[in-house]
Description:
Blueprint: H1 3-6, E1 8-12, H2 16-28, E2 32-36, H3 39-49, E3 53-57, E4 59-60, E5 63-64, H4 65-75, E6 80-85, H5 90-98, E7 103-106, H6 111-140, H7 151-164, E8 170-173, H8 180-189, E9 198-202, H9 208-216, E10 217-218, E11 230-231, H10 233-236, E12 241-245, H11 252-264, E13 266-267, E14 276-277, E15 281-286, H12 290-296, H13 301-307, E16 310-313, H14 323-338, E17 345-346, H15 348-355, H16 362-376, E18 381-382, H17 384-395, H18 409-436, H19 441-448, H20 452-461
Amino acid sequence: MTAEGRGSILIVEDDTGMRLFLGEALRKEGYALREAETGAAALEMISAEQPDLVLLDIRLPDADGLDLLRRIRSAAPETLVVVMTAYGSRQMAHRAVEEGAYDYFEKPVDLADLRVVVRRAIERSRLAREVRDLREQAASNPIPGMIGRSAGMLKMASLIRLVAAHDIPVLIEGESGTGKELVARKIHEISPRNGRPFVAVNCAAIPETLLEAELFGYERGAFTGAVRPHEGRFEQAEGGTLFLDEIGDMSAAMQAKLLRTLQEKTVERIGSKASKKVDFRLVAATNQDLAASVRTGRFREDLYYRINTIVLRLPPLRERGDDLRLLADRYVEIYGAKYGKEGLRLANDAYGVLRSHSWPGNVRELENVLQRAVLFAHGRDVGPEHVALALSASEGPERGPERGEDRPDEEKSLLENVGEIAGSAEKEMIVEALTKSRWRRQAAADLLGITRRTLLNKMKKYGLS
């Protein structure tokens, strides 16, 4: 490895003997060195080259050490500074650390300590630069289909690019609705396996009695109704990526079978005694605290460590700042086009209503609310009244007395009023869809994003049939 490849260091020291002593010791370690006798010369070199590390004598003839430290930190934020002080100047060294110095030494310098601190400082400086480069890459070259410029999502984009290149298991953690399957798909799409299948299985949506057959497949006659062989999801994902959503909901028996498959890379269909080799990359997701489940015995510890080689933690929508506006604008654009309302935009005061909501359902809830708001909207804008109505339709009535108990008349009238407004808006929306489709039921149902049967039931409800 070249000296530049090992790391670059600037020694700022007015004492010629000390400068030569440090330089000789660090050159033997393979570092690229520059030297400066004054603060002015040091600042000029730093602005031109930005080394990984500066070894700074806190007392120089032409500069106050603490002031020079601040100027170095301002000119090169990712360059770390280790200060050197005369014996007995520990108070000054502590002040330097408070001002942002990475560490300090008292003279005479112990070479063994120097080597350790310098190596750690160089590693930290380079890591900071790599993180910066990854964030810049993510900002300038975002992953297609992923919306967000918040710190959490830029970090997520960087991590997706990093893990996609390596064929290792990934565990995605996050609340419901944060977009875990989208992240899994993006990992697959930019990985070397992108030309092969992406197979998704929601472990919580499939009954326990059927999950084994769904994952492992079965042979003809394996059980009543097995009239032909069935290829399981492991086999379907051959060469590609298998995404197991809500893996924390798996039973203990299924966890054991999954562990064996991951260890041996083979599957055995139900009703067969033959094992078949499989090649897939596993990406799993959960909205649970799997580490806590391991501690309570609900999730196997050996399986947990098998699937969490890399853990990606998706931030909830409430922690994503201005991403809310980016996502909202995009959903208004998408559903405006879908419902024949091109050019529709989200009014600023409507955005204020969105910001006031806590979004427990995260991005999925936001999409559903804005889909309804677009349907309610007239004219060129989605206004605050449309967003408020869409939110009320999604949340339902607030908790009050149990069914059958008396409620105050004011509360009854409020709840009934909300229901009447929502019903009126829904009827108006259906009439609009029917008019646009020239009263062709299936076309109107497609516009509304509902089934034909649901549309007919609603038409009957509102006297439109």
